[in-house]
From TrEMBL:
Protein name (record): Small rna degrading nuclease 5-like protein
Domain Exonuclease: 1-156
Keywords recorded for this protein, A-Z: Exonuclease, Hydrolase, Nuclease, Nucleus
Organism field: Nannochloropsis gaditana
Compartment(s) of residence: Nucleus
Region of interest (Disordered), ranges: 165-199
Length: 199
């Protein structure tokens, strides 16, 4: 993303399939003049976008068609910001910022970088954070791997210990994780809809 006269706008979109293969990777020209490329975080430079003609409105039909292949789960880290930047809604979301909560609880979130280091065998991602920026492909694959890891573990995997013991102030008794509670309800015929929204 970069900072424009309208606020933060998308500059690159990367989607990968469940095997980590790229299915969409596009640079996107913002709709309003750019104030700051935020290169230290985005990796995007003026040269990166110099010849780009793809806009978000021109890319949305392709994105929505890919997501419409039922059911397609959109996996990412901090998806509320991504959905807002994409200006879309999608019913099937897996957000690793929610799957792996911060020990202090909301509104704090563990970074993708820290999750990868702690849970994916010390993997270093976002090495360019603050200098050359993130790699959206690497971020997408890392979020996908973290989601798949969570699905192969017990419900309490990587949940702060105090929560698992029911000790989180204002938390759930017994440390039940909401995601898995919803999944259990759905498999017992007590389906529950969870929607995501961006503005």
């Amino acid at each position: 993303m970069c900072l424009t006269e309208a606020g933060l706008e998308l500059t690159r979109l990367t989607l990968v399939d469940e095997m980590g293969r790229v299915i969409l990777d596009e640079l996107v020209r913002p709709s309003t003049p750019i104030i700051d490329y935020l290169t230290a975080y985005s990796g995007i430079t003026p040269a990166s976008l110099a010849s780009v003609t793809t806009t978000l409105p021109s890319l949305q039909p392709t994105l929505l068609a890919l997501l419409a292949e039922a059911p397609t789960y959109l996996v990412g880290h901090g998806l509320e910001g991504d959905l807002r930047a994409l200006r879309i809604h999608h019913p099937y979301l897996i957000d690793t910022a929610v799957l792996y909560p911060h020990p202090k609880g909301a509104p704090y979130k563990r970074s993708l970088k820290d999750l990868a280091k702690d849970l994916l065998d010390g993997r270093e991602v976002q090495a360019g954070h603050g200098s050359s920026g993130h790699d959206s492909y690497q971020d997408a694959v890392t979020a996908l791997e973290l989601a798949l890891l969570k699905m192969t573990q017990a419900p309490g995997f990587a949940i702060p210990e105090a929560w698992a013991e029911g000790g989180r102030e204002g938390g759930r008794e017994g440390g039940e994780e909401p995601l898995f509670g919803c999944m259990r309800g759905a498999t017992e015929g007590k389906g529950r809809s969870v929607g995501g929204a961006g503005d």
